[in-house]
Automatic annotation (TrEMBL):
Keywords: Cell outer membrane, Ion transport, Iron, Iron transport, Membrane, Receptor, Signal, TonB box, Transmembrane, Transmembrane beta strand, Transport. The keyword DNA damage does not apply. GO terms for molecular function: siderophore uptake transmembrane transporter activity. The lineage of its organism: Bacteria, Pseudomonadati, Bacteroidota, Sphingobacteriia, Sphingobacteriales. This is TonB-dependent receptor. GO terms for cellular component: cell outer membrane. It comes from the Bacteria. InterPro entries: Beta-barrel_TonB (IPR000531), Beta-barrel_TonB_sf (IPR036942), CarboxyPept-like_regulatory (IPR008969), Plug_dom (IPR012910), Plug_dom_sf (IPR037066), TonB-dep_rcpt-like (IPR039426). It is found in: Cell outer membrane. The keyword Nucleotide-binding does not apply.
Length: 782
């Protein structure tokens, strides 16, 4: 890429940040409004910025103090001081502070604020809004980023990424994945997100084996507001969002609400999505406490595109969908209730507590051809003297679950350079799994005349307890941290006992997850860090239900080393990070059947991920910037054995066994890179060129060259313009052209192998992504 050189005279702005008593505030953030350019004050409260001439609004913030703004016309070297008033209120940030990394933490992380999220929030799912962050690869069943989407960070899929919303676990307790489709347009109610890569700091919920997403929803806004946000795009895509808020009432109360609808036909044939959601939040702010209640819910109806398409179809009909039944849909609703209380118990102690409850229910409906009736507990049908044992049918697979619990944290700061956090959670999950036949071409039901025949019914119960303690100590330029977590999991499920009989089973697991790190601060702008962290993770539902106590997989173990350098100048921010993720007993698909005939994942003794990550932003001039990320990695399984079984019961040699060494971990590209180049072509008008490169990925763990996802390089163009008119505070117009060069690519897929009559067959399937398409957004803020 060739960037033009921009030469421009630089003017120096320097000053001091103090409190009302003229005491210096070290570490205050001085930034330009509507710009990422920022610096931090040093130990004396002093700061320096170099900028071209022009008109600027400076914003200065410091935890516990009110943010102050000053606007100046800059034409010569200028002294600009700030005196911040202490806030009467505690900030909402304390709700999530226990599970977050700070700027001096020896942890690899990326923060996204509301402005960074809003600029790309045109209707695509939350993972797509994170696509420009380091080591991220996203995917979409429908090909548009709307509907069922996936995210991988450092090659780890969603079941290995810990997700919390205000510190409350979002990952499903059994499958361990996070399904953002159940919370459509959540991004419109998000204030900020912290992405920690690797094990990260201790948090609540499932173990972080690739990363953590710590999401904080709407926080206090002092002024009343109303926002209308509407998008129209290719494939009949619509997004309509209304946001309203009262601002701060009588300096004590605030209320916020959102209502959203997203619809799309999808790029893949019939891969439609009909998504609806709402978010309501109310808060009380006292001098020493905050009480906040959140209620949010989402419903989704999506036509299934789960199967992808075959390699042959990829060449002839990229938009093909195997499913043709009219109601081959997934239907689900999830309701979330959260109650938070924060109390300042003195100058040294702050306490947080939260209660939460999530209710999810729904089903997916599918047509099944020529099914054996006995498999559904349906007796054979006698018609005209002929016995019918098979039938076409339609079935619904239901899930009805409750998830509830409590989280807490205590933050104790006995000295300005010493901080202790004690946190933890206790959660329970009740899951009901049941399946019904709602129609069959031939069937004798139970005689009740019911249209629904329930043929499978089982329950699951899980408890998850954790407690962690973390200490940070600042000694001159060194910052030390230690983090210890104990986690206990109990899981009761309907499975196979040692004798092979279906019955209620249970498992108990206890984990100890220590972490330690060291940061050295060269100055207020730059530091280096190193850390080591241990994570442990339980198997998922399928691993349990499709095995017995003798063939059950072991839990996974990860030792994660991180080391990096971070720096922040007036016009340049840069981070470089190296990591080593060393796995013991990582669970992968090998094709092996266990003692009960289930093809569950198997443990491999040793595997690893080694990588180098870059993340930076260069404000080349007032109107011109370049942001980019790059990851270079190697991801290996030292040894594993593949099993391929013959589907012909009369086969002489019923299984083929292959042993592999030093193979690539599937879906783990060795190169991931992103770029965003932006230029303000006119006042309040910007054009941005957004690029993403993902290297070749293996579809299985054999490293076979004919079972891969090809590398892809996709480019988007974003045009945006903001203005004001009459009583409208802001009119924003955004036009996004995705895949502007019409790249034909697939970002997800799979591979399968089988024998029949001794002949080995291997096949691939893929999820094709949309060719050139557009999204046009109009937002109005009052």
């Amino acid at each position: 890429m060739l960037l033009p050189c921009v030469a421009m005279a630089q003017i120096t702005v320097n000053g001091k940040v103090t409190d009302n008593n003229q005491k210096p505030l070290a570490g205050a953030t001085i930034r330009l409004k509507n710009n990422v350019t920022a610096v931090n004050s040093n130990t004396n409260g002093d700061y320096t910025l170099s900028l071209p001439s022009g008109r600027y609004t400076f914003m200065v913030s410091f935890l516990g103090y009110r943010t102050e703004e000053k606007t100046i016309n800059l034409s010569s070297n200028t002294a600009l001081n700030f005196s911040l008033a202490q806030q009467i209120f505690i900030g909402d940030e304390v709700v999530v502070s226990a599970t977050r990394a700070s700027k001096n933490s020896a942890t690899t992380f990326k923060n996204l604020d509301k402005a960074a999220i809003e600029k790309n929030n045109l209707g695509q799912d939350l993972p797509y809004l994170l696509n420009q962050t380091p080591s991220v690869v996203v995917s979409s069943d429908a090909g548009t980023g709307i509907g069922y989407t996936g995210i991988r960070i450092r090659g780890s899929d969603a079941t290995r990424i810990n997700v919390t919303v205000n510190g409350i676990p979002l990952n499903d307790a059994e499958s361990q994945g996070s399904f953002f489709i159940n919370l459509p347009d959540l991004a419109s109610s998000v204030d900020n997100i912290q992405i920690q890569r690797g094990v990260g700091t201790s948090t609540n919920g499932a173990g972080a084996f690739g990363a953590s997403l710590n999401i904080q929803t709407t926080t206090r806004r002092d002024s009343a507001y109303a926002e209308l946000n509407n998008t129209y795009g290719s494939f009949e895509t619509w997004k309509n969002t209304v946001n309203v808020g009262t601002g701060l009432i009588n300096n004590k109360f605030s209320f916020d609400g959102r209502l959203s609808r997203i619809k799309s036909d999808g790029y893949v044939d019939r891969a439609s999505a009909n998504l609806k959601s709402f978010f309501v939040s109310g808060a009380y702010y006292g001098e020493k406490d905050i009480l906040r209640a959140n209620v949010f819910s989402g419903t989704e109806k999506t036509y299934q595109a789960w199967n992808g398409i075959s390699e042959a179809k990829l060449l002839t009909d990229r938009r093909h969908n195997d499913f043709t039944y009219d109601n081959q849909t997934d239907n689900y609703q999830q309701d979330h209730y959260q109650l938070f209380y924060t109390r300042t118990l003195g100058s040294q102690l702050t306490a947080n507590a939260a209660l939460h409850y999530t209710y999810g229910r729904g089903y997916y409906e599918e047509f099944r051809e020529n099914q054996v009736l006995d498999d559904y507990n349906i007796p054979a049908v006698n018609i005209g003297g002929a016995t019918i044992t098979n039938s076409d049918l339609v079935r619904r697979l239901w899930l009805d679950n409750d998830f509830y619990g409590v989280t807490y944290s205590l933050n104790y700061t006995p000295k300005s350079n010493l901080n202790f956090i004690l946190g933890g959670a206790y959660n329970e999950y009740d899951g009901k799994h049941f399946d019904e036949v709602i129609w069959a071409q031939f069937a004798n039901y139970d005689g009740s005349g019911s249209i629904r025949h329930r043929y499978n019914d089982n329950d699951a119960f899980k408890t998850d307890f954790n407690i962690f303690g973390r200490a940070n100590y600042q000694l001159d330029k060194f910052n030390f941290f230690a983090d210890l977590q104990y986690r206990s999991v109990y899981y009761s499920y309907f499975g196979i006992d040692p004798s092979g009989t279906p019955a209620q089973q249970n498992a108990s697991l206890n984990f100890f997850n220590p972490k330690a790190g060291l940061t050295y601060n060269f100055n207020a702008k730059s530091n280096v860090y190193a850390s080591v962290a241990v994570g442990n993770k339980e198997p998922n539902r399928r691993d349990f239900t499709d095995s017995n106590i003798n063939s059950r997989p072991l839990h996974e173990n990860l030792t994660n080393f991180e080391a990096g350098y971070r720096t922040q100048f007036s016009n340049l921010s840069l981070g470089v990070n190296g990591y080593a993720m060393l796995y013991k007993n990582q669970l992968i698909n090998t094709g092996e059947l266990n003692e009960v005939g289930g093809q569950t994942r198997q443990n491999v003794p040793d595997s690893y991920r080694l990588g180098l990550e870059f993340d930076g932003r260069w404000q080349i001039s007032k109107d011109f910037y370049w942001a980019g990320t790059a990851t270079f990695s190697t991801n290996k399984i030292k040894e594993f054995t593949e099993f391929i079984y013959d589907e012909d019961p009369t086969a002489i040699n019923p299984v083929v066994i292959n042993t592999y060494q030093n193979t690539n971990i599937s879906f783990s590209p060795s190169v991931i890179a992103s770029s965003e180049i932006g230029y303000n072509v006119i006042k309040n008008g910007q054009i941005a060129f957004v690029s993403k490169y993902v290297g070749k990925q293996n579809l299985d763990n054999t490293s076979a060259g004919n079972r891969t996802l090809s590398s892809f390089f996709v480019n988007d163009i974003r045009l945006s313009y903001n203005t004001t008119f009459a009583g409208v505070k802001n009119i924003g117009l955004t036009f996004m052209v995705n895949n502007v060069f019409n790249e034909l690519y697939e970002n997800n897929g799979g591979s399968y192998s089988y024998l029949f009559g001794g002949a080995l067959e291997r096949g691939n399937y893929y999820y094709p992504q949309a060719t050139r398409n557009f999204l046009l957004n109009l937002s109005l803020k009052f």
